[in-house]
Design a protein that fits this description.
Elements (H helix, E strand, L loop, with lengths): L7 H18 L4 H8 L3 H8 L7 H11 L3 H7 L15 E4 L4 E7 L7 E8 L4 E4 L7 E9 L1 E6 L2 E6 L3 E6 L3 E5 L5 E8 L2
Antiparallel strand pairs: 1-2, 2-3, 3-10, 4-9, 5-8, 5-10, 6-7, 6-9
């Protein structure tokens, strides 16, 4: 399903190009990046050539290696966001394999340390991240609808609509939809 006004193929192409640029800027070979990110060289090559789209987990590993939040990386392939971000122009990214939908409600902006992301997980969807993209990343997760189990820094938390979990992330994290309906939540991310 495509969002009105958002060309996801063009976004994926710009993302592939930006990932290749980041590797080149650091002077890394595909082998070096594969070692650092624990992703196969062939997968990275196909990703940089735009032959495949990244999953949320793969993109998170690359963000960790490049020391960026996912929102910041996605913002780098979008034009500079305006002061007012209309709902129709908020970038949406889908990971079909994990059934995760991510809307950048308030994308990263020069001079600002915070951003707002809306996440939606289908029933029984489960996403695990090995490490934060930036150690000590501050997050405030506000559940808007449904139920979710969030594990941060080794501690699991059961949350329902209206609940808010706040933490600084130093280790792994996991988001798992625990209800029969999708869970929708807002994440306020603040760089350290």
């Amino acid at each position: 399903m495509r969002d009105a006004g958002l060309d996801t193929d063009a976004l994926d192409a710009r993302l592939s190009t930006r990932l290749a640029e980041l590797r080149t800027e650091r002077g890394w070979s595909l082998e070096e990046l594969a070692r650092r990110a624990d992703i196969s060289r062939s997968t990275l090559s196909r990703l940089e050539r735009g032959e495949i789209s990244p999953t949320a987990a793969l993109l998170n590993r690359l963000c960790a290696v490049y020391e960026r939040t996912m929102s910041r990386l996605l913002a780098e392939v979008e034009s500079e966001p305006p002061a007012v971000v209309r709902a129709a122009s908020q970038p949406v990214w889908r990971d079909a394999s994990s059934r995760f939908v991510r809307r950048s409600v308030s994308p990263p902006h020069a001079g600002l340390r915070g951003e707002i992301v809306e996440g939606t997980l289908s029933p029984s969807a489960d996403i695990a991240y090995d490490e934060p993209p930036v150690p000590g990343l501050e997050q405030h997760v506000w559940v808007l609808e449904g139920a979710v189990e969030i594990t941060a820094n080794g501690q699991a938390h059961e949350l329902e609509a209206g609940d808010c979990l706040r933490f600084r992330l130093w280790g792994s994290s996991r988001f798992r939809c625990t209800g029969a309906e999708p869970v929708r939540y807002a994440v306020m991310v603040v760089l350290p």
